[in-house]
Amino acid sequence: MTTDMMKAVRQHEFGGPEVLRYEDAPTPELKAGEVLVRVHAIGLNPPDWYLRDGYKTLPPEWRPQVTFPLILGTDISGVIEAVADDVQRYSVGDEVYSMVRFPSGLAGGSGAYAEFVSVLASEIAHKPSSIDHVHAAAAPMSLLTAWQFMVARGHEEQNPLQAQQHVPVPLEGKTVLVNGAAGGVGHFAVQIAKWKGAHVIAVASGEHETFLRELGADEFIDYTKTPPEEVVHDVDLVLDTLGGPSTGRFLRTLKRGGALFPVFPLGFSGGEEAATQGFTVSATQVRSNGAQLEEVGRLLDDGTIRVAIDSEFPLHDAHKAHERAAQGHIRGKIALTLRDSHRLLKDTS
């Protein structure tokens, strides 16, 4: 029996970056409704290292059961290699980008750290023609997160941490504060808010000020010198890309009727205070959506939204990319490239 093989980065146990192995793996089999993409670049995201180390940030009862070996990663850009018979919209040779199987792939990895990945046709979109594969691969999860929090949810799945559905708020003419503004979600959120007509306050460390002002920030706060909650008032919306237990401090920056959107809502304990003050605290989980990627792709294509690349690593150095992520203070996104690894190997057994 002959099995098509590819190169991929897999892990066989939980742990640090050292558990990521560059090795041979079976090429995904194409199923109904899917396309097979020859990957040119991969974007890294926090769920990659959350899964790599065993979801230690989640309560034990929430941690999915994982089957090894697994292939990390969700965000890809590449060229369609094959198309299932029932897929009509796409053809072999099309350049596409995608957030693959998220969150449905949380338990076993979505398979993006590889030469080939199978993707539901509903989760892909045509790659914006004016940007390269690296910039396209770096966009999906972070850009869709900002979009689904701030513009259109794109799905009806209920966030189990809150009673109400997440609803984006109007941005035109409003004041929006983005915490963690230089990171993956943050630098897109700044641009979206500005495009929608908001007055944007960006919070990040001082070395990112010029970068964020170039993206459209009207005001900048260096959090290493000034706690933003001590100097900012009457904000309509805070998008806290860091979230967690400290996100409640931003309640004091809001005007009555304002909203706090923590991207990572676990640990927030100020619900009663928020309700008393007339504030809305709400979050959603980003989900794959090819139609939205087509929509935001037009903004990437015409330069309305730019993708910042912090650093690039070849696929076989994925562990080094994860080491870079662990250092923090990322400007934009980290990407993996496959420029020198495109070959389909044969393993006969």
TrEMBL record:
PROSITE patterns (alphabetical):
QOR_ZETA_CRYSTAL (PS01162)
Alphabetical list of InterPro entries matching this protein:
ADH-like_N, ER, GroES-like_sf, NAD(P)-bd_dom_sf, Quin_OxRdtase/zeta-crystal_CS, YIM1/Zinc_Alcohol_DH_Fams
Residue ranges constituting the Enoyl reductase (ER) domain according to the UniProt record: 15-336
- Matching SUPFAM superfamilies: GroES-like, NAD(P)-binding Rossmann-fold domains
Instruction: Show the coiled coil region(s).
Output: none
Q: Does the keyword Oxidoreductase apply?
A: yes
| Keywords in alphabetical order | Lyase, Oxidoreductase
Q: Which domain of life is it from?
A: Bacteria
One short Pfam family name for this protein? ADH_N
Annotated GO molecular function terms are: lyase activity; oxidoreductase activity; zinc ion binding
User: Does the keyword Oxidoreductase feature in the UniProt annotation?
Assistant: yes
Name of the protein in its database record: Bifunctional protein: zinc-containing alcohol dehydrogenase, quinone oxidoreductase (NADPH:quinone reductase), Similar to arginate lyase
